[in-house]
């Protein structure tokens, strides 16, 4: 049934949906769908976008905000090897880092259909091997971590067209093999993981110009091989996935200076087992109401869930099994569902979220086909 649930809608299917609704009501629910039945009409859907790094595409989906079901809308082309993505807060623009073509693709999101249209002038040049992408929507700023270039490209984006313009002084230095990137909730500070030096670099953001200035004390020590990075939506903490320490570390943010302080002791390299038993957290996602966090464990093919209390992470029920080689993870804007893309399976695992316990329950028909080859990232928006 999982492949039957992701289909492309047509006009005829939309016309037929009122009949389908009556039939399902007579049957007592929506579990009686057959391969010839159209998908449900989704009222005010969210939209999900998946970066397929091997097929150089972005898959587009409607997200049913009631069931969590994904409905395919096709794909659009990007540059070479798209990986990290970010959307602005209004759900108007999507920016995609293309790691092998050293540029960023910019798209405008149709707020009614979720369709992507390339911005004029896209793609825009970055430094070498762009990875993490972070936005300050209130100031129309975009930051891209250039892993092979040891730099951060900074852009302003036009609030109408989405076109990018380089910030004076960009690219900025002060990073080594940067990978993940995130800003605090108020857009005052930028944080970037330095994967080879086991640190996070912190920068103050000039909201008028977009220029970056290193925070005093930066870079800050982390666990081993920090990759995943996420900031909580309340602006008080940053969470780092320590790939080879098998942990996620919380840091408190100094609200005036932007410096980071570990909330719990920093983990050491996990040397108690062979590499085959590492869970290897890769990407981290934070619930929109900061109640819990998840980490995609690429070494264990699982998704770990943590409850959050004053920044402290407590393992919740789980972890839960996903597909092979899970990479990116994302909550829907309502916080009811979480999704993780599985690189080797070309699938998207989907779960309902119990915000009281952190328990994750697989959705019916999950996992869903990703619509491309080697999915590595997912972004979900609710257009305003």
Structure description:
Helices cover 4% and strands 45% of the residues. The protein contains one helix and 32 strands. The chain has one helix spanning 11-27; strands spanning 46-52, 57-63, 70-77, 82-87, 93-98, 103-109, 116-118, 124-125, 130-136, 141-146, 151-157, 164-166, 178-183, 189-194, 199-205, 212-214, 220-221, 226-231, 237-242, 247-253, 260-262, 281-286, 292-297, 302-309, 312-315, 320-321, 326-331, 337-342, 347-353, 360-362, 368-369, 375-381. The strands form seven sheets. Strands 4, 5, 6, 7 and 8 form a five-stranded antiparallel sheet that branches. Strands 13, 14, 15, 16 and 17 form a five-stranded antiparallel sheet that branches. The longest helix is centred in the N-terminal third of the chain and has 17 residues, at 11-27. The radius of gyration is 20 Å and the shape is globular.
Quick rundown:
With 384 residues, the protein is mainly beta. It contains 1 helix and 32 strands.
Roughly how much helix do the residues carry, as a percent range? Answer: under 10%
Alpha-carbon Rg, integer: 20 Å
Instruction: State the shape.
Output: globular
Number of strands: 32
Mean pLDDT: 89
Q: Strand percentage, roughly?
A: 35-45%
How many strands, what sense, and barrel or not for the largest sheet? Answer: 5 strands, antiparallel
Q: Which structural class do the helices and strands define?
A: mainly beta
Which parts are unreliable, with pLDDT below 50 for 5 consecutive residues or more?
Answer: 1-35
Number of helices: 1
Ends apart, CA distance between termini? 33 Å
């Amino acid at each position: 049934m999982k492949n039957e649930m992701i289909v492309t809608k047509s006009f005829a299917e939309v016309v037929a949906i009122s009949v389908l609704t009556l039939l399902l009501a007579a049957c007592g629910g929506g579990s009686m769908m057959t391969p010839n039945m159209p998908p449900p009409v989704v009222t005010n859907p969210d939209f999900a976008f998946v970066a397929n790094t091997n097929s150089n595409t972005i898959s587009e989906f409607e997200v049913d905000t009631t069931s969590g079901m994904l409905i395919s809308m096709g794909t659009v082309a990007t540059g070479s090897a798209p990986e990290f993505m970010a959307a602005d807060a209004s759900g108007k623009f999507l920016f995609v880092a293309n790691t092998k073509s050293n540029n960023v693709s910019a798209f405008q999101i149709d707020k009614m259909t979720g369709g992507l249209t390339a911005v004029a002038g896209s793609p825009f040049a970055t430094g070498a091997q762009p990875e993490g992408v972070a936005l300050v929507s209130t100031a129309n700023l975009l930051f891209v971590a250039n892993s092979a270039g040891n730099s951060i490209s900074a852009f302003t984006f036009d609030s109408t067209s989405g076109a990018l313009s380089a910030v004076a002084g960009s690219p900025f230095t002060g990073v080594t093999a940067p990978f993940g990137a995130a800003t605090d909730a108020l857009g005052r500070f930028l944080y970037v993981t330095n994967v080879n030096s086991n640190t996070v670099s912190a920068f103050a953001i000039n909201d008028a110009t977009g220029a970056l200035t290193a925070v005093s004390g930066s870079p800050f020590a982390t666990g081993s091989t920090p990759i995943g990075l996420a900031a909580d939506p309340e602006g008080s903490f940053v969470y780092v996935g320590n790939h080879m320490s098998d942990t996620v570390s919380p840091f408190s943010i100094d609200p005036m200076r932007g410096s980071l302080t570990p909330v719990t002791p920093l983990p050491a390299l996990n040397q108690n087992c062979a590499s085959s038993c590492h869970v290897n957290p890769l990407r981290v996602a934070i619930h929109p109401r900061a109640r819990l966090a998840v980490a995609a464990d690429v070494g264990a093919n699982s998704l770990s869930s943590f409850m959050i209390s004053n920044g402290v992470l407590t393992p919740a029920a789980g972890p839960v099994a996903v597909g092979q080689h899970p990479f990116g993870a994302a909550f829907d804007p309502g916080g009811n569902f979480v999704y993780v893309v599985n690189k080797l399976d070309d699938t998207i695992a989907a779960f309902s979220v119990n915000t009281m316990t952190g328990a994750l329950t697989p959705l019916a028909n999950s996992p869903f086909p990703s619509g491309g080859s080697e999915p590595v990232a997912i972004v979900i928006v609710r257009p305003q």
